[in-house]
Design brief:
It contains 36 helices and nine strands. By secondary structure, it is mainly α. It folds into six domains: 191 residues, no CATH class; 163 residues, Rossmann fold (3-Layer(aba) Sandwich), CATH 3.40.50; 36 residues; 47 residues; 35 residues, no CATH class; 188 residues, no CATH class. The strands form three sheets. The chain has a five-stranded parallel sheet with strand order 2-7-8-1-9, sandwiched between helices. It has a two-stranded antiparallel ribbon with strand order 3-4. Strands 5-6 form a two-stranded antiparallel ribbon. α4 crosses α8, α27 runs parallel beside α35 and α28 crosses α29.
Length: 910
Amino acid sequence: MPLPSSARRWVGWAWDFHDADVELIYQRCVLACLEVPRIARLLGHRPRATRDAVMQQMRRSEVMDRTLPRASRAVLESAIEDRDRHRERFRQAHQQYSWVAVSLLLVALLTLAAAVFGPVGLLAAAFVLAVFAAGPRARGGPAGLYVAGCLRAVWLCLRWGIARLALGIEAAQWGETTGQRIEPAVWRTTRALLGDDPDSLLVSDSFDGLRSSRSRAYRIDNAALQTLSRKLSYMDSGTVAVCGPRGSGKTTLLETTVDRADFGLLAQAPASYTPHEFLLSLSVDLCKKYMRHHGRAIPPLVQLSPLKRFLRRARSRGAQLLKWAAFALPAAAAVALGVGAAVRKSVDEHVPFLQEARRFTEERIDDAAGIWQGHAAAGTGVTITLLGMAWWRARNSEWIHDTARGAWYVVTSVAGIALIGAALVGVGRDVWIAQHLETAIAVAAAPIIVAGLLWLLFSAAADFTPQFEVRGWEIRSRVLLGALAGLTGWAGLLYVLRVPGMQGVLASPQNALHLAELITGVLFLRVRHWAPKPAERHLVTRCRSHLFRLQAQLSASTALTAATPQFLTLGTSHTTSVVTLPPNFPEVVHEFRDLLARIAAEFEERDQSVVIAIDELDRLGTDTHVLAFLAEIKAIFGVEHVHYVLAVAEDVGAAFVRRGLPHRDVTDSSLDDIVHVQPATLEESRALLDKRAELTGPYALLTHTLAGGLPRDLIRYGRRIMDMKDKTRSGELARIARLLILEELSETLAGFRTLLSKQQWTPDTGNVLNSFRTLVALLREPCPCTEGELRSALQQFAFYQTGDATQAAGQELADEARQLIDEASAYTFFSLTLLDIFAEDGLARRTRQAVQRGPDGNPERLAHARQELAVSPYSSRPLIEAIRKAWSLPMSPSNVIRWPWERECPIHGS
């Protein structure tokens, strides 16, 4: 059962205090470092990396001297020598004198003298003993010498105890410092025992960041985000497009930009939307976002009559009021009944002050009546009139609201603190309470202290005591200790209330008044933050009306009938219906621009930004559909103080880059700038994976290579690495990489075979499909038994292109089929290269050698090759060949076995 970190720290201090030895403390610190999670995970996965092996290496004298220099041990060793010196002196005195018996006899005599004669007798007895011990010693008497020797032994014992205590404290402090100092050494020793390539061992099971790929907590700032932020900061308003391949993080980039804006809106543009429908949806989202930003509820657009809506609202408010009154009224009645008499008595005492306030109020009323009747000076009326006009014009001034709010806060705070202080001072000066409280303290002091100490003990123990099981029963010690603490507190409180003196304290005549002052002061402090609900902004009202206009359909009808009450009836009937028609496209554009401009002007006054992001434009189909969609909605662009950020496909970005050349399209007039989201570099991929999972450098390189630097695929391949770890039941890179690459290749070639099945084939060209089927079957269940056949098939398909592999029937292949086969062959060539690099031991050494051979040996080139496969198989093959040369890999089929397998076949059993 692992202990909490605080408990382990206390245990370590206790052991170090008890041992007080350099070697023992050092060994304990090494054992504690072996329990550190990052070190403990490395142990037991390889034969040499075990706890005993690490402990044996750390016990070597040269390692210990290198880890703990002599200077770091000087203070502790000096304390040990001081302890040993005092202990030896005491041992010698202990052998010569029976100091325990003599000391007890002297203590008994001093105690008897103090009990009989008091402090004076104690001092006199001590003086006599000192004279007796010193006098005979000066004369050479044996009794005095023996007593002096016993007293010296007592002093040496005390001095030894002080030295031991100082040594224990120094040992505990030195042990804590030593544990922090030697942890890096234990980490390096453990990694050294793992072999030449310790990072190729995957031991972490933490991949929570890979589970939640859309979580905002795992986002990082990359180069594209920094570029977009700079471009937006250079423009007061404008439209910036974000282009890049799918999975490059365009949506995350837009979400981060919107989150960091003071007012941001992210809208999706699915393929089924028309421009008119998209602008209607965008207008609705804008209104809702603005209303939520100002804390206003979105109006429920339901088909209910006004009477039903009023009854439903009244029923809800009535239920809330009834619940509030059920608690508030009895509580207020109880408080008023308890303090009513004291408050009335206090009011009667302050009647003169209230009469003076009443007289002052009546004089001001008389002055106002005199001004109304014209008895005041002529300028007084004009002055009052001007003040009234100024007050009306200041109705929208912010400083008046701020001043009133500040004055309310100050007045209620001062009044609350003053009333609470008056209550406390009154209790302290109450003679009745003082007289009875002394008696209560004399009776209940000791039980109260004991109850308080027990409450503190139980509360502190409940914080770090773990759970445990006894015969299958789960004992929650935290709950038990918390219950004991609560029972102890309540028992102490009940005991205090039952003390006779405390009854007198509670019966003080002034307690009701003090309690009323305290309650009133607390109420003042509670309502000091109260402020009247601000009036609804004009733009909020307009947004609400706009929502009704866009989402609700209103109709009204009137009817008139006239009739005579006889057999002959004459009448007329007229019905009129008014239905609000949905706004057309130009009206939607005008309303949206006007509303957005007013919202942006409001935020611009506070120097805040407004961002409208439109995502998924690359899902509209071809670049022609996207450009047509932009041509329709570009009418909403160009609003002052508003930044538009669009996510588009790469071909739309390429069209914008060619502006000014003979090629011109809608992007030239719609976009102000563009940000190309490039695939992540190896450093950015490592940063992203470090944020989400604990993957070492080789695994980050493997994931980066397979994903081609695309963040979405980085997360996907990170999950697959964890899956391969569970499948292989091993953390070795060679086994995980081999299984992952072969499974990925199998799935990819199966997809190519499905596409090839749709082509037209002849008996002469059908052997291509047979080769595909054989290779896919070998990849589906790879094992050591078929390793030679699998490697031969992979090499034959990877090194030879379509024209070489099917020389006799090459002219009969269709162009589309030839293209598919060349793409599959290039991808197989790339996968074979990854197998030769990652599925072999010693990756760190071989990586250093490849880097020394030139730029093609840079590990980043592997991801470049994966990205080039998305462009063309013919341009990616020369790049892969250059990488193989830099890594010293065979440039033709070879029989050398490079991929380690298990000794026993998991399929065939031998």
